[in-house]
Amino acid sequence: MTPPARHPLLMRWATGLLVALTLACHQSTQAPPPSENLYASVPASAPDLVVYGGTPAGISAAVTARRMGASVLLIEPHRWVGGMMTNGLGNTDASGVSVIGGVAREFLQRMLAYYQSPDAWPLQAPTTFRSGAWGVDGTMRYFEPHAAQMIFEKMLLEAGVEVALQERLDDTAPGPVLMESGVIKSIRLVSGRVVTGRVFIDCSYEGDLMAAAGVHHVTGRESNATYGETLNGLQLNPSALHQFPTGIDPYVIQADASSGLLPGLRLLADATNGQADPGTQAYTYRLCLTTLASNRRPITKPADYDERNYELLFRLYSAAPTTPLAFGRDPIPNLKVDSNSGVAFSTDHVGANRAYPEATWTDRQLILAAHRSYQEGLLWTLANHPRIPLSIRTQAATWGLAADEFPETGGWPDQLYVREARRMVGEAVMTEAHAFGRVQVSDPIACMAYPIDSHHVQRVVTPQGWVQNEGGVLAQIPGGFSVGYAALTPSRKECRNLLVPVCLSATHVAFGAIRMEPHFMMLGQSAAAAAVLAARSGSSVQIVSYPVLKVVLLSQGQVL
After folding, report:
1. Which of 490, 472, 348, 358 is CA-nearest to residue 421?
2. pLDDT tier for residue 241 given thresholds of 50, 70 and 90
3. Which element (helix H / strand E) includes 474?
4. CA separation for the pair 544, 459 (Å, rounded)
5. Nearest to 466 by CA among 272, 273, 310, 319
6. What is the three-class DSSP state of 236?
7. Per-residue pLDDT reduced to its tens digit, 479-517
8. Whole-angstrom distance between the N-terminal and C-terminal Cα of the chain?
9. What are the C-alpha distances in Å from 440 to residues 227, 489, 557?
């Protein structure tokens, strides 16, 4: 039975009352003196909270703050809200549903209520979909992109959140963020709009607001030595997951090094396992595919198609003809799949994203175009190229883009799956030791329960002269672990009114276990609750009372 929906107005009143009572109990020790009010000069009309990025984390933050009675502006650079959950990631990574609480669980409960209606199944009988694998815990974590968009938009509308779509920081000129004494006073958007606010939350996948505010951050992989880890840096002991078989030649003309390396390959000189590396785990478009002829858009050959980009694919099938169809197919409702990377050469455009995290918006568009061309070319090649085994071509030819998804963009998601970009270096850093339970935080704000998961970062030539995917890590953790509030806060010397729940302060390894959308939603909710407390007390985000925050989060159903 689906739990009854929570009434937003009642929740907002109850939460506001609880916060007020809790703050009153702590006033003697927690309230800052008047001279410490960071927001005294902020115009009364300015929102209490500005959320940058309409990702699931951003939506969770905006809805939470509105329910607490705060005024909110949500800024989203893309065509619609919802981040990856409305852009193809319908097979939601949530291995530990029991630790998902708050707005994240509410979303999954609403999704179950939606799919319990016969009207939600126009193309498939619900009894034929993942029998016994959904609804048993009161949630639904398999969904179509348009269903996620509908539910997110409804939640924002019910909460009364102001949303600015296709707006972003103006990176065409220096200084889009106005800072004074470590406080963000305003941000300038590409439309020319200047936005003021009390507290800001960066919920973007890239950490663009954080970076523009001058907050210290990193990209790529730290060395193992930096934080005493074992799974960071270069992974020269090859992961067996999605790996090439031994013996794949890396050269344009096989066995002829003078002919040069195939596209996308790199040589590593004097490299050691665990050393730092600037590369970032691969990106992809999470395509929504179907074999249902009445709902299928054909895959077309890109105008810039170059079969040399797929030579490694041909050599893979030549060396291992029984390799499965080279893209993942996780079922979602109505005879569709969420397509993810599947084998050694698949939908991940390995190595093509190295410049993305720090690139400008304009330069990122070129990277996006390259990813789409690569992926479209891959699907066309699998279905049509004579060097692909006939059995694979026959399978691939049955797949196409779902015609009833992403009509605005011709069946392609609007967002690339940016699995990892910048990561803040804040008041505290989450590391491998936290993920494995060797160290616990003293200020828990959400519980993570997913393996350490990093896709490959690059393709390299081994010392023996063969092709190898490098960077993949998949490591089970002994149980759930908590993220601490301090990992969401920048150094107080750098910025005092910014919280970062997505590009949070974590090493590459720890981020691999954190980077799942329900986790981001919980972190966004906790950030919003803290932001409201800071805005109301006039304090910096770093000195928000954790005992007060804990009471608020527990009242909102968070699992800490």
Report:
1. 358
2. confident
3. strand 473-475
4. 45
5. 319
6. coil
7. 889 999 999 999 999 999 999 999 999 999 999 999 999
8. 25
9. 15, 18, 21
